[in-house]
Amino acid sequence: MKRIVTSILSMVIVLSLALPASASDMQVNASDYISSYSASVQADGGGDITIYFDIVGIGCMDQIGATEIYLYEKNGTLTKLVATYSYTDSAYADAMMGYDVYWKMGNVSYDGISGREYYARVYYISGVNGGSDTRSQLTKTITA
């Protein structure tokens, strides 16, 4: 039992250090299936963008992660959807969804345009024993 508690505490510390999201971006005590979740977008230079997310369940979940991520680009007054990521796409399945785990942390990347603004909407799911809950979250806008 002590090992499980230590593992969970270590996971929480890793989550808090790994994501460049502020504490106000994290949603805590979200539901009967979701303990917390957060998402952020980071500019990596040269127009490259990384979308980070994490979700923590209320225990060991049958399925937990991001079902879809939509990335939007703002250019002046125009906003358009530039990328869609889905856990059903084999290229993103492992990065976005976990099974029989307590939490899922992942990221996806996009080759954007320097100087443009980007934000994402992340859709989450967490479920166990036939029950589940979903949430969505809009990230803050960043400039690539």
State the total count of DSSP E strands: 8
CATH architecture: Sandwich
**Strand composition percent:** over 45%
Order of helices and strands: HEEEEHEEEE
C-alpha Rg (nearest Å): 15 Å
Structure characterization notes:
This protein has 144 residues and is mainly β. It has one domain: Immunoglobulin-like (Sandwich). Helices cover 15% and strands 61% of the residues. The protein has 2 helices and 8 strands, in the order αββββαββββ. The chain has helices at residues 2-18, 93-96, and strands spanning 27-28, 34-45, 48-75, 78-86, 97-111, 117-128, 131-138, 142-143. Strands 1, 2, 3, 4, 5, 6, 7 and 8 form an 8-stranded antiparallel β-sheet that branches. Strand 2 (34-45) and strand 3 (48-75) form a beta hairpin. Residues 1-10 and 12-24 have low confidence and may be disordered.
Which key phrases capture this entry?
elongated, 144 residues, Immunoglobulin-like, eight-stranded antiparallel sheet, 61% strand, disordered N terminus, mainly beta
